[in-house]
Amino acid sequence: MSIQVFILSNLMKENSYPYKLKKQLSEPIPLDQLGGLTESKLYYHFETLAKKGLIEIVEIIKEEHRPDKQVFAITAKGREELPKLIYKLFENTDIVKDMIVGLIGLQYVDKKKVVDILENNVNEIKERWNQLSGMEGKVQVTEEDKELRNFVRGYITARTDHNVQWLEELINKIKQGVL
What we know:
Blueprint: H1 2-13, H2 18-26, H3 31-34, H4 39-51, E1 55-61, E2 69-74, H5 76-91, H6 100-104, H7 111-135, H8 146-175
């Protein structure tokens, strides 16, 4: 889904074709490689969006000794769906790294609604963590398993605290209008 949000967000700015978007992702930092985005995956998502009526071919560029380039534009239906996809992206994850594509499209959504979603995510994380922490005394651990339990608890605590910290920072930056 995040690849489709990326494509639609870019087509909101200008008409484009798959190879051009792939090239934008690979220069100067190879974000495509870091995210495992291949050219075939990108073409697949363009085709999927076209079948859904969210984008359409508006031009075919013919070049000698090269394959034709199909230039796509976002449709009215695509403009309508993009905010829904962005909200869904924020709702389906509570990890900032998985939200980055959605953050790129913040200009196409109601930021207050995004803040509400993110605050809900933080509250759910804290609630889950409190429930797990409350179970600690109820679970019998052998002496030989204490070190493992302490290691795992430390790791999970640090990850949870770090994630909540970054989500709260993201919420504050959106509220302040910085993002």
